[in-house]
Structures are given as C-alpha cells and as structure tokens.
Amino acid sequence: MEKIIFFGLVIPIMAYVLYLGGMAIMNGFKSKEANRVEKEEAENETSEIRDTDPEQSINLSDELTKLNDLKEKGIISQEEFEKAKNKLLNN
After folding, report:
1. Over 70: is that where the pLDDT of 18 sits?
2. Class of residue 31 by CB neighbours under 10 A (exposed 0-12, middle 13-18, buried 19+)
C-alpha cells in the first residue's frame, strides 16, 4: 500500500518539479540571448554614430581638454569639472 502511494503521488510531483525547473532554466537562457542581441544592436548603432561623425569626436576631445585646463588652473572645481564632463559625454 505504501508503495502505491509513493509511486502514485511522490514520483509525479517530483517529475513536475523537475519540469518546472527545466522550463525556468530554458526561459533564463532565452532571456540572456535576447539581452545579448539587444546589447549588440545598441553597440552597433553607437559605433555607426561614432564612425559617421569624426568631427564631433574631435570637438569632444577639444572640449574635454579645455575643461581639464580650467580645472588645473583652479577656475572651476572638481565637482564642476565632473558635471561638465558627464554632460559632454552623455550628449
């Protein structure tokens, strides 16, 4: 009688738990792949933008150099330098 209960209840429950675990793992792999593809597309778009406008990167370099000179001369503080640098790099 105990064997019937074991095979009738415990084995199907264990099989269902294994099934759920396998599905969770597969969903994780699918999500990871989707995130990787999105990240690659974003990097490609960013690199295309950088490649198409070299003049902007030259201006960015010049602006960062000017900001660094202002900071070294004491005209602006470290905080102001960081804010301006972040503003330039995020645009």
Report:
1. yes
2. exposed
Q: What token pair was written down for 2?
A: 């105990």
DSSP per-residue string spanning 2-60: HHHHIIIIIHHHHHHHHHHHHHHHHHHHHHHHHHHHHHHHHHHHHHHHHHH-HHHHHHH
Query: Token pair for residue 83?
Result: 């804010």
pLDDT level of residue 2 (50, 70, 90 thresholds)? confident
The whole-angstrom separation of Cα 84 and Cα 91 is 11
Assigned token pair, 33: 């792949």
Q: Which of 66, 69, 67 is nearest to 83 (CA)?
A: 67
Q: Is 74 helix (H, G, I), strand (E, B) or coil?
A: coil
What is the value of pTM for the model shown?
Answer: 0.41
